[in-house]
Amino acid sequence: MKKLFVTGLTLLSLSLPALAHADDNSEEIRSLRQEVQMLRSDILRLEDKIYEMNKKLNSKGKSDKSDNWGCYIDDLSAGAVYGTGRTEMEAKGKTLAKCKEKGGACFSSNLQCSKAD
Predict the structure, then answer these.
(1) DSSP letters of the chain?
(2) How many CB atoms lie within 10 A of CB 69?
(3) Which of 2, 16, 117 has its CA nearest to residue 70?
(4) Tens-digit pLDDT profile for residues 8-31
(5) Distance between CA 64 and CA 1 in Å, rounded?
(6) Domain segments of the chain as ranges
(7) For residue range 30-51, what is the model confidence (pLDDT) as tens digits?
(8) Where does residue 102 rank: exposed (0-12), middle (13-18), buried (19+ CB within 10 A)?
(9) For the whole model, what pTM was predicted?
């Protein structure tokens, strides 16, 4: 009986440091889980900010596009050429410049321009 008791105490004394180490690990795991939760909330907050910024940029882009002009010319040498600008004159100039770069015979009388809706 004494041998069984001593053996039990020996086994118990050997397992106590292992249990204490397991408690340390569980505390570390708890701390890591809290940190992961904080990081996830930070990520969600940053994603929301990015979404809001994209929304603002898209709304500004749409309002700018409503003022854009577009011009088109179909030339035998250069083919179909399209240009845009904030004003009709800017769009015409860009379209004619692209047409000449392609080696076309480009005249402003052949341009078709319209304002974007």
Answers:
(1) -HHHHHHHHHHHHHHHHHHHHHHHHHHHHHHHHHHHHHHHHHHHHHHHHHHHHHHHHHHHHHHHHTT-EEEEEEETTTEEEEEEESSHHHHHHHHHHHHHHTT----GGG-EEEE--
(2) 20
(3) 117
(4) 556 556 555 554 555 668 899 999
(5) 92
(6) 20-61, 69-113
(7) 999 999 999 999 998 999 899 8
(8) middle
(9) 0.44
